[in-house]
Give the backbone structure.
Amino acid sequence: MSDVQTWIKETVTQNPVVLFMKGTAQFPQCGFSGRAIQLIKASGVDNIVTVNVLDDAAVRQGIKEFSNWPTIPQLYVNGEFVGGSDIMNEMYESGELQTLLKA
């Protein structure tokens, strides 16, 4: 396992809610990342760790390999990959995201 993969694994397992995104929570750099942050905040989560993949090309590629998921943003809850913004949106509309994030 590479250093980047090890770092990603540690990050997602040591923090309850982690979002790999383009930009920051305060200044998202793409609409999908902005929507993901909105959904998490609307679900009542304030304690979220965000990783700006635009800061490090190795992390940007590494997270895609780690999850075997081609797009960013990517949400992890309690070390488990949840999905990207489309999946998060569907889960939010059904109430599933709020339940998962409160657990």
Notes: Residues 3-14 form the longest helix (12 residues).
